[in-house]
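Data card: per-record layout.
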Amino acid sequence: MKYIKEHIDNNSRVNGTGKLNTFLKEGLSYEEWLEYSKQCVDKAYAELNNTIPCNTFFTIRESDNKIVGMVNVRHCLIEEISKYAGHIGYDIRPLERGKGYAKIQLYLALQEAKKLGLKKVMITCDQTNVPSERTIRALGGFFEKNGVDETKDSIESINWIDVNKALEDHKAIIEETY
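The structure for this 178-residue chain is written out next.
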């Protein structure tokens, strides 16, 4: 809850939470979201709930057990989603940005994408979000086009990353950190 509150307090959009912020806005509990999130890995459950099978992860700093980010890895894309969102949605809490967590988190998300058999992943970010765009480029992402996200009334930069190449070329990111 502190993670979401920090976004609200800093007037920052919440991304990559696997709909946690939506659940809370609708008055549902964290526990209800957690159950939903656990079930969304199942394709039949996801389809029944009008969503895509996905896994949502917390990025937790071990030194103080603080959630510094969240990432959502979607198992596939459907036409509607691919207009403005991709296989991976991620976010770093506002007061932890600029410390390198986004690159580490995205790298770990690419490892999960590889486990799912994804060869290339689509990642989007608001075209004005320069730090996110830098993170995507740092892991080998390349720009394809802009798309309109009518749900957020924004222009999204649509990018692609070759999963195997990114994991091989950038494994030093993890090795240096751990």
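Known properties of this structure: The mean pLDDT is 90. Residues 101-115 form the longest helix (15 residues).

See the next section for split statistics.
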